[in-house]
Every structure is written in C-alpha cells, then in structure tokens.
Automatic annotation (TrEMBL), chain A:
Keyword Manganese: yes
Subunit annotation: Component of the oligosaccharyltransferase (OST) complex.
Catalysed reactions, as listed in the record: a di-trans,poly-cis-dolichyl diphosphooligosaccharide + L-asparaginyl-[protein] = N(4)-(oligosaccharide-(1->4)-N-acetyl-beta-D-glucosaminyl-(1->4)-N-acetyl-beta-D-glucosaminyl)-L-asparaginyl-[protein] + a di-trans,poly-cis-dolichyl diphosphate + H(+)
Taxonomic source organism: Gossypium darwinii (Darwin's cotton)
Parts of the chain that traverse the membrane: 24-44, 91-111, 123-143, 149-167, 179-204, 210-233, 245-264, 276-294, 306-332, 369-387, 394-410
Gene Ontology molecular function, alphabetical: dolichyl-diphosphooligosaccharide-protein glycotransferase activity; metal ion binding
Membrane topology: Multi-pass membrane protein
Record protein name field: dolichyl-diphosphooligosaccharide--protein glycotransferase
Keyword vocabulary terms for this entry: Endoplasmic reticulum, Glycoprotein, Glycosyltransferase, Magnesium, Manganese, Membrane, Metal-binding, Transferase, Transmembrane, Transmembrane helix
Organism lineage: Eukaryota, Viridiplantae, Streptophyta, Embryophyta, Tracheophyta
Chief location bin: endoplasmic reticulum
Family to which the UniProt record says this protein belongs: Belongs to the STT3 family.
Domain named STT3/PglB/AglB core: residues: 543-600
GO cellular component, one term: endoplasmic reticulum membrane
Cofactor(s) essential for the protein: Mn(2+); Mg(2+)
Length: 720, 596
C-alpha cells in the first residue's frame, strides 16, 4: 500500500516537465491561441455579411491585385489605367504602394503551388486578418525585447483584440494599413533589437522591414522621422554607443537605397523635406563618431574642447547652407500639405478642403479614443511610469513611439491605428509589471505556508516560524484584491473589444444593414445593384461621373470609366466635377459634355434615411469646386449660414444639378406614413422643390431603395 | 418521285405560341400517313422552311396513341436529317423512320413535336417602360409538306386574348386566345399560305446567352453543381427612362414586360445552395424544399427590362448516392443535362463533368447529339488534374432536360490519395522542423560566439547531469527516511541496516560520478558564473548526506539499545531541524540552477 503512491509519483515525476519547459509550453500555447484569436475575431464581417471587399480604397487594391494576377508584375508596373480620371488616365504602377498587392499575389501563388485552389478574392479578404495575427507575434517579441516575455505575451493579447487595430484589419478590409502595421511594428522591433545588440544582421533586417513598409504604405514617413528623432534623443541623453552607430547607419543607408526602388517614392529620400531629418541625423552621427575618435586620440581636454567647438560650428554651418541651397534651388521640395496638416491640425481646414472633407481626417474625439482603446487609455500612463522607472534604450524608444503617435492620433482619427501598437505595448508593460509584482508577493507567502505545513505534518516543531512572522496579512489580501481587479478590467476589455468588433467595425459599408420594424435584419444592397447594372447594361466605354468617393467602387464593381476617384491626385479635376454638381443644369451640361460623360451617378439617402449621401456631402463639393472656380460661392447655397433643403433653402441650392438629380420625382414619393410626399428621411424635412424637371438628363436607373440613382446624358437635340 | 407515292392525311396541326415559354414556339403535329403507292414505304419526310429550320431546337416524333389507352412509355421514332434529291433547296428535311413499312392503303398515325426558339419578333422593337410588349409570329396556314395533304387545320394558341392583328383567311375562327385556320382539304404538295399573328405577350423572355454547368463529382459523397448564367431579356428593347417610382407604384403596368424573378426546380435533397455574381452574394432568393423537389426562387439584382443583361452563378450540392451508380464494374453518373430553370431558352450550353482525379475509360451517353471534348481541371490537392468531359450544345430548350450518363472507371483506393497527401505533407513538415531543431546550420564554426554557445550548451548538459545526480541522492535520502519509518512501525533492525548499506553504496557511486562533472565545470570558462552555485549545492548536499547518515545511525542505535520512541525522537530532534533547513536550502539551490 505504501509503495504504490511512491511509484506513481515517480512515474509522474518522470513525465513532469521542468519549470522551464512548462513555461515554454505555456508561452507557446498562449501565443498559438492568441494567433488564432487575432484571426478569428476579425472574421465577424464574413459571418455577418459575406466574404467581400469592404469600403472604398480596398476596391482599388482588389482591382489592381486582379490585374497583377492576370497580367504579371511587369504589366502591372507599367499599367496605364484608362478607366479612371478620364480623360487624363492614371499611371497606376508609379502612383501606388505595391506591397499589399504583391503580398496578396505571393500568398495566392504559394497556396496555388500547394494545390489549394483558392480564389484571389478570398486571399485578399483574409490578408488583413493574417497580417494582424503576425503582428501579435511581433508584438510578443517586441514586448520581450523592451521588458520581459510576460509583457510580450500581454502585448500580444492586447493587440490581438484592440479595436483601434481591428477597425482597419477585419476580413475584407483589404487596405495598405492591414500589412503596414505589421511592417511598422516589425521594423521598430528589429531596429530596437539592433540597437540593443549592435548586430549588423538585425540592422539589415530592419532595413528590409523598412523597405517592406515603404512598399506598403505612405505612413513609412513616420518611421523615417521617428527613428532619427529617437537617435537624436539618445545622443542628447548621452546614450551614444557603437551599437547605435551600427544600427542606425546600416538601417538608414540600406533602407534608403531599397526604398528608392519603389517608383512612387523614388528619390524622395534625398529630395523631399520630410525625409531630411533622417539625413541630418545620419551626418550628425558621423560627426559624433569623428569627435569620439578625435577625443580618443587627443589626451588634452582643453584642446579637444576647442576642436569640438570648431567642428560643431562647421558641421552646423555646412548643414544649414546645404539645406538652404537645396530649398532655394528647388532640389529639396518643401513639406507637403498633408505633412503640415499632421503637425498643425487646423492647417487642412483652411488650405486643403479635399483633405478636410474626409471624415477619417478629422481630429479625434475623446469618445473615439475611449472606443478604440478602452482600458488601455488608463494603462498607457501607468506603462509610461514603469518605462521611466526602468529606463533603457528600448524603453526610451517605446516611450517616444507612444508619445508621438498619441499626438498624431489626436490630430487625425485614422492615425489611432499607428498609435495602437505603442499603446498596447506600453499598457502591456503596465499590466505585466503590476501583475508580476502582485503575484511575487502572493507566491512567496504561499511557498512559506506550504513548506511550513508539510514540515508541520512531518511531526517536527515548526521551524520556519521566523519566516511566517514576517508576513503581513493585509498585504496578501490586498494583492489578491488587486489581482482580481486587474483581471476584471482585462475581462471588461475583452468583452468591449468583441462587442465593438462585431457591432461597429465589421460592416462592409457596401451592404447596409438595418433593423426592420419587427426586429428582423433588413439588407440594403443598393450599391451593388447599381454597380452591377452599370456593368451589365451600359456600353463598355461609357463614362460615369460621380463624386470621387464612389470612383474606386465604380471602376472595380461596375467596370466603367470614371471621371474622378478616391486617388485624389488632381484637385482641379475634382473641382470640375464639384462645379458641375453645384451649377444649374444648363451650365452643368456644358461641363458634362466637355468631359464626355455618359452617365451621372448620385447617392441619395432620402428614402431610407441613409445619412452619408451626396446631399450631406454637397457642401464639400461646393467648397472644393469653389476653391478652384470662384464662380461657385458657398454662401449662395446657405441661408443665414445654415444648410437646408426644404422650402426655406437658397434658390441656387434648390435648382443646382445635385439637388435635381437627388430629388428627381421624389416629390411624388410617400416615404413615411403620416408625412407629406417628398419627405426626406435622412434630413427629416419635406423637400423644397418637388417639381424637378430635367432637360438634358434622364433617369436611367434607380435602385430599389433609391440609394443610388443613375442618370443618362441625353444626346444633343438635332439642329435644323 | 418516290415520296409522292404517299398521300398525307393531316388531322390537325396545332401551333402553340406556348403559354409557358416565351421565346419558344412549340409545334405539335398529328399526322396520319397513308400509303397510296404500290411499294412498301418506311420513311416519311418532314419539311421545314429555312427560317424555321434555323430556329428549330428540338424535334421528336412519337407514334400516336388513342385517348383511351393506357399510357405506355412512348418510344420515339428515329428522326434523322435527310437530304433528298430533287427537292427545293430552301427547305430542310428530316426523315422519320416508321416502325414497320407501310403497304399500299395502310395508314399510321404519329405525333411530331418541334420546338423553335427566337421565332417571335417583337414589334415595335423598342418600347418604353409603360408600353406593353407586342410580338409577331409568322407561319404558314397550310402545312408545308412534300406530300399531298387530304385534310389539315391549324390552331394558334396565344398566351393572352389581346390580339393586335392576325391574317384572316377563309375558314378562320377565333376562340378566346386561340386562332383556328382550316380545315383545308386536298391541298397539293408544297402548298404555302403565309400568316402573321401580332399579339401581346408579357411573358418573361429570359434567354441565357451562355450557360456553363459544372458538375463535379466527389466520391466523399457529394455532387457539386455550379451554373454560370449570362442572361438577357430577349424581348422588345426598353427605351427612355426607367422610373423606379412608377415601377414601385404599379409594377404590373409600368414594367409589364419586365420579369423580376426566375424559378429553378432543383433535385430533392439539394443542399448548400448559393446564388452570387462577380461582385458578391445576391441576397434576394428563397429556397423551399420537400421530398419531391427543391424550389429555388431567385431575383436578379434589378428587374429585367427588354434588352437588359445580367450574369450570375448558382451552385448546389447533391447527395452522391442519388446520381452515381455502378454497373459492370464501371461507375456512371446519371444526371439531367440542362438547366433546372423553368422557362429558359439557352443559346449555348456547356456542360462540364469533372470526374475525380484518376478516373479513366470515360464515355458519355446522351439521347441527342452533342459536341464533346475533354479537358483537365486542377482543383484542391490535385497533382495532374481531374479529367473533365465537356459537352456543348446550342439552342437548348427545356425538352432537352433529359438524363445523360457519364461512364468511367475509378478505383476505390484513389480516394485515399488526398488524405494521404495531407498526412504526408504534415509529416514532412514536422520532420523538417525536427531536423531544423537538431541540425547545426551555423556558417562560421570557428567564430567566438559560436564556440561560446557550444561550450555553454555543454555546460548546460553537465549541469543537467549534476542536477540528476543530486536529485537521485535526495531520493536515496528519502529512502533512508522511509526505512526509518518502517523501523519505527515494524522494529525490523536488519532490514533497516540493509537499506543503509544499499544507500551507502549508491551514494558512493553517485559521488564518484559527480567528480568528473565537477572537474569539467571547473575547467570550463563559461561555467564561471554557475560554478559557485553548483559547488555550494554539492557541498550542501554532502552536508545533508552526512546529517542523514548521523541521524540514521542514531535512530538505529536507539532501537538496538531498545530505547523508547520518545527518547529517540528527542535525540534526533535537533538533527531533524538542521536536516529540514538543509533540505530547504538544497531545494532552493536546485530551483535556482534550474532557472539558469
């Protein structure tokens, strides 16, 4: 009887893993679970709707990816797209970041090679979740690098479900950001690793990471400015080392050369103002190194001080003159408006209405910070505290990344995305450090209690009484309470993230869903109805005029030529369309004919109460049109500074083309019970002009819920 | 002329501008043939004018059965295209072979069913949303035949009684939606009397310009059917505005010529039905199913007006056992040829039957002529692709929706191919992982860091061994303690001494083993940090060992001297305390070293 348990325990012991192995096993399995979780939480959109591409820009990416799969890389690189920006066209190969498309096609080819007969659309839909999963791995390693593996694990979990990141990486959101956040974090991680180790290999890896980032997203400018800034801070704080020298020089030189291979970026690294900081820091590094060497050679400090003064003055003067000459001669381009609008939130509003008109370029509201970060918003400062407490090269980096990106997140809603990894990492440090401190407290006690009890049962007088006496009961209880509090907060975070993902961020915005009167789900599939109608029932070479928001979708789904699209590279062209929409019909028809337009498409939400329609965007059309053509004046469309569409609206408003196209025959329509005909549900008013007559245009198609209305341009009347 | 030895006795010719099929005209003819010549005759010629022959999609002749008779399965008479001499070139001939030759004076009655597509011409060709659609049908009131006709009549059945105009001949009567011509008697051969009927038809003119059906057999229990439609409304072209307001308000008046939905009768137990197009899923469809059939009602994205096009794909899975059979060691698929859509004319139908990879000896049996070739398709986990039988037929009407068979050989073992591929794929992946973990792929074997790493690994291995030895020592101590407990229970001193002896031997051996390991650690430079801890561990353990021995001897002594249990306990109490403390220290050290 007595030997039995002993042998059993021996057996168990031989199977039992060592603490280290156990830890490894737990860590790997947690990482695997997080990897899977990050993927599947992004599949809500597929479950709720279908496996489809979302929003606006992804449709362009999808279209180019299709082109790439069908025609190969060289054709793609040299692609001149006749179907957009008619009659200008667009050099696609030279005006896009090809990283996303090439990645998707690469995955597609690999799957095909492994004999999985997938469709390229499925690959495109799942690219973003796949890269989000990879990001969690990078976050783990990054966390491990800057703090410890516990913080890495927490960071991986936090970033896997953080709404700020999910908003841009759900299945179907086939956009540059999907892969770019991975590339961004990877570059940062590898660079920090390079700084920590001084290894040329890691530095090389960070150059390649940077290259991938440049190929994927315009946000690479953030990297090329943050890293020099970080290096500068290290220099100032006296943390200059050989490791830093190796890491930065290799990364900058190779990264710059590699980035020049992307046509859209070209020589910007040496020519544009946004990239000059990196170059300046590069030269500064050389000066530093040189001074270091001279200091080593000169034993006399006084002599060195003098030398230092002369060298620094010379270096600054040469740098200043070079920059000035570059600026004056036009070799170095000044900062672009987009860059200015990042540094100064009010800049875009005054100078570039086309940037200001995009909702995701608005300054961030507190509520959306709360929505996207939830508890991370409170953990972030706590994490910063821990970082400052244990200052190292790595923590300085994450602090700088966190602070700068938080500033940018405040300037523009969409840049919350860039801040998310930093916020997750810093919060993870807070969580991990707190929990670790608490558990250490708990564990040390537990052990003592355990040893005491086992020995006590052994029949001896308790020997470890001295140890037990040291414990304070309140401390232990407090630790337990705090731990529970932390877990409660984290579980609230998980619940919040899941809810946000399923309710807010999984809508494709092509298909609109609403709750019906009986709580059932009503689907408005009007966009695709219209686009498919265009695709099937208009001549192959028909040109469609619409506001630029719908350009990408019309070319991708409708397969028809558009006048302007979401690649807002030509402000004048967009302003021309804005002018046409805001003129009277007989003035507009001149513009329409001059642009060779066959169909005009407008989006109208008056029947369904869909509020992001063209009437609500109309003021931006007026503003952008008026910015180029002063004939269009915003006050003409307003009554006492108020924008309205009912009887009290401005006469110009009631008779402009956009108004007519949206409300054509709407005056006869009964939209809501108990309301007069022509009641606009999106704006909650009865429209002012119910008798809309069109002279040069005729209704060609209106979708079943009136969301998209397409008009045909009539041929000119015969003259006799 | 040979054929003029016949004399036809036509009973009726009924021409239906079918109530169901829009772009179709079904012509049903009842013919009684009488041999008026002296020779036996077994072939009857049917003549069609060029225009009709071009549009003819289907022709079938069956022996006529009386009305009261029990319906036997009708055996169709063989019909072949004929090219008799001395006939007008503008006519196309088909010959029907009679079951037995007709002697002089004998008669035989049979039905001929001919189906024409695109025979109705919309006039006017363009209509607005509010207009009704008018179509024109042209034919001959007299039956066009190479033979003399004794009696003949013609009735034209229309879908609706609203008739715009029709050719009035003698003996023309109109009953509601039916126009009757005849009877005419004793017509000479090749008599022709053109008629035209202009009438209203708002039936759906759904024409599939191209339909590709892909039937994929999986021997894991599924037949997957995918149908790609390119559809057009083949009626009068719509012109002018399309007003959604009018269409919403009065869809039957403003949009009478449009059709909004199509119905497909799928086989029973169809599952996983989907309906989508190039840009995604189409949510407007309804599926109803019972044990007899599955009815799928699909709405295109927009109502189909004249000339409007759409394209979509429907797909469904069918249980394998309903369609796949085995005979003479061969398997065969028995499935319908054409589309499950009701009232659909198909201009070009391509049926692709995708057989499992490794099928051989493929042959097709269809009841009408089709173009046929083979392709391969590469699908999931295929190495050299699946054989595909492609059947192509133009001008397909619902009458063609007959079963056809594809015979092929397929070995049951081939089914295991794909699972085995997957298994071996994963197997090789794991093998590769193992190899990677164990292989040394460092480039420079002489670099300092590499050497240091290797040394460190050796040191780790040695420390592992040291730990093992220590833990074995500890178990020996435990055994000694256990023997003491046994002693206190049983009082068997001999057994206890034996245990002591065994333990002594074991511990001696262990310390011998420990010696070379320690010297290695002392000599290795990279063990410098760990060494003090390890040495401390060894020292503590030795101390512990001594204490245990002392305690053991004390207790055994006590028993030998027959001291009381209480006495013995008092004697060892102090030692026991020290032991516990030492044991604790050793455990701590072990843990510490473990974490390095």
């Amino acid at each position: 009887m007595a030997t039995m348990p002993a042998s059993a325990s021996d057996l168990l012991k031989s199977f039992k893993l060592k603490t280290k192995q156990q830890e490894l096993l737990i860590r790997v399995s947690i990482l695997c679970l997080v990897y899977i979780l990050a993927f599947i939480t992004r599949l809500f959109s597929v479950l709720r709707y279908e496996s489809m591409i979302h929003e606006f820009d992804p449709y362009f990416n999808y279209r180019t990816t299709l082109y790439l799969t069908e025609n190969g890389f060289y054709d793609f690189w040299n692609w001149f797209d006749y179907e957009s920006w008619y009659p200008l066209g667009r050099i696609v190969g030279g005006t896009l970041y090809p990283g996303l498309m090439v990645t998707a096609v690469l995955i597609y080819r690999i799957l095909r090679f492994l004999r999985f007969a997938v469709h390229i659309r499925e690959v495109c839909v799942l690219t973003a979740p796949f890269f989000a999963s990879n990001t969690t791995l990078v976050a783990y390693f990054f966390g491990k690098e800057i703090w410890d593996s516990g913080a890495g694990l927490v960071a991986a979990i936090l970033i896997a479900i953080c709404p700020g990141y999910i908003s841009r990486s759900v299945a179907g959101s086939y956009d540059n950001e999907g892969v770019a956040i991975f590339a961004l974090l990877f570059t940062f991680y590898v660079f920090v690793k390079a700084v920590n180790t001084g290894s040329l290999a890691w530095s090389l890896a960070s150059a390649f990471g940077y290259f991938y980032m440049v190929s994927a997203w315009g946000g690479y400018v953030f990297i090329i400015n943050l890293i020099p800034l970080y290096v500068l801070v290290l220099l100032i704080t006296g943390r200059y080392s050989m490791r830093l020298y190796v890491a930065y020089n290799c990364m900058y030189i190779l990264g710059m050369l590699l980035a020049m291979q992307i046509r859209f970026v070209g020589f910007q690294h040496v020519q544009s103002g946004e990239h000059m900081a990196a170059m300046g820091v590069f030269f500064l590094m050389q000066v530093f190194y040189f001074l270091d060497w001279v200091k080593h050679m000169l034993s006399d400090t006084k002599l060195f001080q003098a030398f230092l003064r002369i060298t620094v003055t010379c270096a600054v003067a040469v740098g200043g003159i070079a920059l000035g000459l570059g600026m004056v001669s036009g070799y170095i381009s000044p900062w672009t408006g987009r860059f200015y609008s990042l540094l100064d939130p009010t800049y875009a509003k005054d100078h570039i209405p086309i940037i200001a008109s995009v909702s995701e370029h608005q300054p961030t509201a507190w509520s959306s910070f709360m929505f996207d970060f939830h508890i991370l918003l409170f953990l972030f400062p706590a994490g910063l505290y821990f970082c400052f407490k244990r200052l190292s090269d790595a923590t300085i980096f994450i602090v700088m990344y966190g602070l700068t990106s938080m500033y940018f997140a405040g300037v523009m809603v969409r840049l919350i995305l860039v801040a998310t990894p930093a916020v997750c990492l810093i919060s993870a440090i807070a969580v991990s450090a707190t929990v670790k401190n608490l558990t250490v407290l708990l564990r040390s006690k537990n052990k003592v209690v355990q040893t005491g009890s086992t020995k006590g049962s052994g029949g001896s007088k308790s020997s470890s009484k001295a140890l037990l006496d040291q414990s304070q009961p309140f401390q232990k209880n407090g630790a337990i309470a705090l731990l529970f509090g932390a877990f409660y907060l984290l579980s609230r975070y998980a619940t919040h993230c899941t809810w946000v993902t399923s309710e807010a961020y999984s809508s494709p915005s092509i298909v609109l869903a609403a709750r019906g009167a009986h709580g059932n789900r009503v689907i408005f599939d009007d966009y695709r109805e219209a686009y498919f109608w265009l695709r099937q029932n208009t001549p192959q070479d028909a040109k469609v005029m619409s506001w630029w928001d719908y350009g990408y979708q019309i070319t991708a789904m409708g397969n028809r030529t558009v006048i302007v699209d979401n690649n807002t590279w030509n402000n004048t062209h967009i302003a021309t369309v804005g002018r046409a929409m805001s003129s009277y019909e007989d003035e507009a028809i001149e513009i329409i004919r001059s642009l060779d337009v066959d169909y005009v498409l407008v989006v109208f939400g008056g029947v369904t109460g869909y509020s992001s329609d063209d009437i609500n965007k109309f003021l931006w059309m007026v503003r952008i049109g008026g910015g180029v053509f002063p004939v269009i004046k915003e006050p003409d469309y307003l009554v006492n500074g108020e924008y309205r569409v009912d009887k009290g609206a401005a006469p110009k408003m009631l008779n402009c083309l956009m108004y007519k196209l949206c409300y054509y025959r709407f005056g006869e329509m009964l939209t809501e019970y108990g309301k007069p005909p022509g009641y606009d549900r999106a704006r909650g008013v009865e429209i002012g002009n119910k008798d809309v007559k069109l002279e040069h245009l005729e209704e060609a198609f209106t979708t079943s819920n009136w969301i998209v209305r397409i008009y045909r341009v009539k041929p000119p009347n015969n003259r006799w | 002329m040979k054929s003029f030895r016949f004399c036809f006795l036509m009973l009726t010719i009924a021409i239906l501008a079918s109530p169901a099929l829009s772009d179709l005209v079904l012509s049903k003819v009842d013919r009684r043939v009488e041999n008026a010549g002296p020779e036996k005759e077994s072939l009857v010629l049917l003549a069609f004018p060029e225009q009709q022959a071009k549009n003819m999609a289907y022709l079938m002749a069956t022996p006529h059965e009386g009305k009261g008779k029990v319906k036997n399965p009708v055996v169709a008479l063989p019909v072949e295209a004929a090219n008799p001499k001395d006939m007008p070139a503008a006519l196309t001939f088909y010959s029907v072979s009679l079951p037995k030759g007709l002697a002089e004076g004998d008669s035989f009655t049979f039905d001929v069913l001919a189906v024409f597509t695109h025979a109705l011409r919309p006039i006017p060709e363009q209509i607005t949303q509010a207009d009704i659609q008018l179509v024109l049908y042209q034919d001959s009131a007299h039956y066009l035949s190479p033979y003399a006709v004794k009696v003949q009549s013609l009735s034209v059945k229309l879908p609706d009684s609203r008739i715009e105009s029709y050719t009035k001949l003698e003996n023309t009567k109109i009953h509601g939606s039916e126009i009757k011509y005849g009877p005419y008697e004793n017509l000479p051969s090749f008599s022709y009397s053109p008629i035209a009927v202009h009438f209203e038809s708002n039936l759906p003119f759904a024409v599939a310009q191209e339909l590709v059906r892909e039937i994929e057999i999986s021997h894991w229990g599924n037949v997957q059917v995918t149908e790609h439609y390119k559809l057009i409304h083949g009626g009068a072209q719509s012109k002018g505005e399309f007003s959604r307001l009018d269409f919403l308000a009065r869809p039957n008046v403003r949009g009478a010529s449009a059709f909004r939905y199509l119905v497909a009768n799928l086989p029973p137990r169809a599952h996983s039905v989907y309906y989508r197009d190039e840009i995604g899923n189409i949510s407007t469809s309804h599926l109803r199913g019972d044990s007899k059939k599955t009815e799928l009602l699909i709405e295109p994205r927009y109502p189909m007006f004249g000339g409007w096009r759409t394209a979509f794909t429907i797909g469904y899975g069918l249980p394998l056992q309903d369609f796949l059979y085995e005979s003479d060691g061969k398997r065969f698929l028995n499935i319908t040829f054409s589309s499950p859509m009701v009232e659909l004319v198909i201009d070009a139908l391509i049926v692709k039957v995708v057989l499992p990879e490794g099928s051989s000896d493929i042959s097709v049996a269809a009841s009408f002529p089709v173009e046929q070739w083979q392709e391969t398709k590469i699908s999931h986990l295929d190495i050299d692709g699946r054989p595909v039988v492609v059947l192509k037929k133009t001008n397909v009407v619902p009458q063609h929706n007959q079963f056809f068979q594809v015979y092929y050989h397929f070995s049951q073992l081939s089914m295991l191919r794909e699972p085995l591929m997957l298994i071996s794929g994963f197997f090789f992946f794991f093998v590769a992982c193992i190899v990677y973990m164990h292989a040394d792929i460092s480039i420079s074997k002489s670099s300092a860091s590499y050497l240091a790493k290797q040394q460190w690994e050796e040191v780790q291995a040695v420390i592992q061994q040291v730990q093992n030895i220590i833990s074995r020592c500890l178990t020996t101590h435990d055994n000694l303690e256990a023997s003491l407990r046994d002693l206190s229970r049983t009082g068997n001193i001999q057994a206890c001494k034996a245990a002591r002896k065994a333990a002594d031997g074991l511990l001696k051996e262990l310390s011998k083993e420990l010696k070379p390991l320690l010297t290695f650690l002392q000599s290795s430079p990279s063990a410098a940090q760990v060494l003090p801890k390890v040495e401390e561990l060894v020292a503590k353990e030795r101390e512990l060992q001594e204490k245990v021995m002392v305690k053991h001897s004390t207790v055994v002594d006590g028993y030998e001297k027959k001291l009381g249990a209480r006495d013995i306990e008092n004697r060892v109490a102090l030692q026991q305390q020290k032991l516990t403390a030492l044991r604790q220290e050793v455990d701590d050290l072990l843990e510490f070293i473990d974490e390095i």
